[in-house]
Amino acid sequence: MILQINGRKVDVPESVSTVEQLLSHLGLEGKIVVVEKNNEILEKSMHQGASVFDGDQIEIVTFVGGG
Description:
The chain contains 1 helix and 5 strands, in the order E-E-H-E-E-E. By secondary structure, the protein is mainly beta. It has one domain (about 1-60): Roll (Ubiquitin-like (UB roll)). A hairpin with a 2-residue loop joins strand 3 and strand 4 (about 40). The protein starts with a strand and ends in a 5-residue tail after the last strand. This is Sulfur carrier protein ThiS. InterPro entries: Beta-grasp_dom_sf, Mopterin_synth/thiamin_S_b, Thi_S, ThiS/MoaD-like. It comes from Ectobacillus funiculus. Pfam families: ThiS.
């Protein structure tokens, strides 16, 4: 399945079916992130139940500490 993630087309295995699984696949589980799916910001509590489909547009913002 092809997803548009942060403006780039990314081939993701069909076994990835939720936002939570997508974050895990990308190595972002446990990190503080904001996810927008098809122009809708998802609360963290929605990640497990939010399905992803071929062609979805996903924006992922991570937070980096520093000074």
